[in-house]
Amino acid sequence: MPLPILTSAPPMVVDVVCAAPKFARSEEYSVMNNATVHRRVGLRGDVETLGSCLLERGAILRGDIAKITLYNCVVIEDDVIVKPPLRVEPNRNIEAVKVTIGTHSSIGKRTVCEAQSIGAFVVIEKDCCIGALSVIGHGAWIRRGSVVPAGVVVEPFFVYEGNPIQPVGRLQPESHALYVKELQNQRMQSLIIG
Questions:
Q1: Domain residues of the chain, as ranges?
Q2: Phi, psi (rounded to 5 degrees) for 64
């Protein structure tokens, strides 16, 4: 039986570029390299932001293991751990793998992520576990509490849930991208003092 096509994202016009807020709502945040960072974020080692990003309280990004690159308008919520995965080479050497997180992607609260890459417009809801060396395709939506096993390639523009994840629906790429952009822009704008 074919999976249902989910079209819950309302059509909307979004041509606002995600920008780091100039003034945070409180002194809990600072702007570093165009990223809005809560003062209780643990940035270790080589973490690169290529555009405005939001890093919430308690997030830990382990760039001391291997480089982590966040593209424009990435949101890392409270208490998320992003840790580069380790790969065992055929000669039994252990290699740390670089991590990339694509434009307009978000990782929900209390998620532990060891993915090798996360595409653009990805939504990972809270309390998920993303296994080592997994690859999350563009536009994937991973529902709350889901587990992505190590080494899995998650197909783009599907909704997944469960332990282990299973596809439960398809997303329309254009409307999903617009919906995710709007969510990210609202999140960034909520930090600006009105």
A1: 5-189
A2: -75, -15
Q: Is the pLDDT of residue 164 over 80?
A: yes
Query: Distance between CA atoms of 185 and 14, rounded to whole angstroms?
Result: 9
Q: Provide mean pLDDT across the span 62-88.
A: 96
Among 8, 38, 32, 6, residue whose Cα is nearest residue 20: 32
Closest CA to 121 of 165, 156, 91, 82: 156
Compute CA distances 89 → 39, 65, 84, 94, whole Å: 37, 16, 16, 6
Class for domain 5-189, per CATH? mainly beta
Determine the Cα–Cα distance for residues 194 and 190; give it in Å rounded to an integer: 9
- The two three-digit tokens of residue 167, written as one number: 């596809």
Q: Which of 112-116, 165-169, 181-185 has the lowest mean pLDDT?
A: 181-185
Q: Residue 12 burial by CB count (10 A; 0-12/13-18/19+): exposed, middle or buried?
A: exposed
E strands, 77-149, are 81-82, 86-88, 94-96, 99-101, 106-107, 112-113, 117-118, 123-124, 129-130, 135-136, 141-142, 147-148
